[in-house]
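Sanity check record (used in CI):
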Amino acid sequence: MVIGNSKRPLTEMVNNLVGGSIPLPNLPEEIITEILLRLPVKALLKFRCVSKLWLSLISSPQFIKTHLKISTKNNIYSHNRLILSSGPRPNVFHTFSLNPKIDEYSYVDTLLFDYPLSVDQDERIRIVGSCNGLVCGVLDLGNVVLWNPSTRKLKKLPNSGSLRGTHYGFGYDESNDDYKVVQTYWIDRDPDVYETRVEVYSSRTNSWRFVNWPGGYIFDGPGVFVKGAIHWKVHYDDDTKNWVVIAQNVTTETCSNLQLPMSANDDDAHVMLGVCGGCLSASYSYRNYMDIWVMKEYGVKESWSKIVCFPYLLMSHLVHARYKVLFVSENGGSLVNFGSDLIMYKPSQCHETFRLENDVEVEAATYSESLISPDFDHLAWS
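Expected output for F-box domain-containing protein:
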């Protein structure tokens, strides 16, 4: 960003403007709005201090939603960040930019998670997923929270009053501008017979309710939100023991089956679902390597395409570790979380391993920077 002959960094200019050493630009309000809509969240949070007019503008529901829409239309990684937690202090998180144009070591933030007053301050946070800048997490005793790491705002969801969930999913119903959290758990019907129960939280009603489930048992980690649905890895009680994918539409709350690129059970490979470049992904972890597939045309089995073959080389100890594919770049580089390890694989340079302190299992996810409030103030405008 250049003003006159000055080429000062944006952060310096923001600080000077907020501090009063640079006068407000004499531009039409419409032009100022268009400029602000294209700035990163970190700058906008500082610009709220410039004037009451700017505070009102940047805090308005219309501005917040328009800023999100413009951000998501840009390069999908330009506003994306990696967030992770590891170590003895469960409330300390670190975030890193996924923008390849930014020096990865110069744009690192450390955040403190502010626990709700009613929650034990030592509870660890299990990350469910993220959507539109909001990160959904579950604390040790089953409390569900929504957190915007960019604005530091937090909301603890009401308890459902049912059993504690075993698996969770988080998504956005665009048709109704409604953020939804799904929790599932099993109940005993008969000896050795279990039934899956599913409840959905709606930000519109700030309450939970039961929804229908087609059957099958959910395994392995949180549901994956992409293409308007939360996707679950499910096993039916039959002789095949093969995994299937159930897509739970967050608008209609109906379910449909999707086919994996290859049939597999735990004897063949450890299969995990994810998101890569806005597409549903499936990773197959074998003894010596991992394959990552993406569904390029949603719902079409023939569109599954293998984009990465990730050799384990000297990392055989990771084969049975809990893992999560966090990021895949356009050139096939990938970042995978294995237990307490972060593995960065580059096809031309093999891999780098980052072991985090105390061998504590890492909680990590990617999220997009936004001004969306977990209190859903933006719902006042449509």
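DSSP finds five helices and 24 strands in the chain. If this sentence no longer matches the regenerated tokens, the check is flagged for review.
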